[in-house]
C-alpha cells in the first residue's frame, strides 16, 4: 500500500465519519414533525382508555413550529441512541465505499 492509498483511505474515513454523524440528524430535522400537547397531570392521561386517549390527542395536539422541532432534535436523538448509532454506522459504510471508489478511480 502506497502513501497515496493511505491518504485516500484517510480522506474517505474522515468524510464518511463526518457525514455519518451529521446526516441522520439532518434527516430527522428535515423530514420529522413535532407535536405539542397541553400540560396535564400524568395521572389524567394514564386514566384514559385507549380510545379516549386517541380522541384527546386528536383534539389537543397541535403541530410545533419549525424552531421548536429543530430544538427537539437533540432530545429525540438522546431518547433513541441505538437507532441513531445504527443509522450512522450504515451511512458511514455507504459513504466510505462510494467516496473511496470515487477517489481511487480519480487517483488512477
Counting DSSP E segments of at least 2 residues, the number of strands comes to: 2
Give the SSE string. Answer: HEHHEHHH
Uncertain residue segments: none
Mean pLDDT: 86
Class from secondary-structure proportions = mainly alpha
Amount of beta strand: under 5%
Question: Strand order, biggest sheet?
Answer: 1-2
How do the strands and helices of this protein lay out in sequence?
Elements: H1 3-31, E1 35-36, H2 42-47, H3 50-60, E2 62-63, H4 66-71, H5 73-79, H6 81-107
Antiparallel strand pairs: 1-2
Question: How does this structure look, described?
Answer:
The protein is 80% helix and 4% strand. It has six helices and two strands. Strands 1-2 form a two-stranded antiparallel sheet. The longest helix is centred in the N-terminal third of the chain and has 29 residues, at 3-31.
List key phrases describing it.
80% helix, mainly alpha, 6 helices
Give a brief rundown of this model:
This protein is mainly alpha-helical. It is built from 6 helices and 2 strands. α1 (3-31) packs across α6 (81-107).
Amino acid at each position: 500500500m502506497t502513501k497515496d492509498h493511505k491518504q485516500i483511505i484517510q480522506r474517505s474515513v474522515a468524510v464518511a465519519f463526518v457525514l455519518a454523524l451529521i446526516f441522520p440528524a439532518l434527516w430527522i430535522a428535515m423530514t420529522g414533525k413535532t407535536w405539542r400537547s397541553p400540560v396535564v397531570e400524568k395521572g389524567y392521561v394514564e386514566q384514559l382508555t385507549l380510545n379516549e386517549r386517541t380522541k384527546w390527542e386528536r383534539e389537543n395536539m397541535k403541530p410545533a413550529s419549525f424552531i421548536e422541532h429543530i430544538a427537539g432534535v437533540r432530545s429525540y436523538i438522546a431518547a433513541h441512541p441505538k437507532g441513531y448509532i445504527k443509522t450512522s454506522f450504515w451511512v458511514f459504510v455507504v459513504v466510505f465505499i462510494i467516496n473511496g471508489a470515487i477517489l481511487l478511480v480519480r487517483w488512477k
